[in-house]
Design a protein that fits this description.
It is a single chain. This protein is mainly alpha-helical and 65 residues long. It has one domain (13-64). 75% of the residues lie in helices and 0% in strands.
């Protein structure tokens, strides 16, 4: 299945940059269209970092208990 092992294949070279550009772009479009605020990319990166931190904390908690 593509979504289970996409990092093990050759597609990560094309999928990763596309996702890294499209995700902040979509959030930027939303915030610019509705609020006229230019901080969509900053918010998306902050959200990704918070999500990564939450994942690491809970994965360690569930793994250690």
């Amino acid at each position: 299945d593509f979504w289970l092992d996409w990092k093990d294949r050759q597609f990560w070279v094309t999928v990763t940059p596309i996702v890294e550009v499209m995700y902040p772009g979509a959030i930027m479009y939303y915030f610019w269209t509705f609020y006229r605020q230019p901080f969509g990319a900053t918010l998306s990166i902050t959200g990704l970092l918070v999500g990564k931190w939450i994942t690491m904390v809970f994965a360690w908690y569930w793994w250690s208990n």
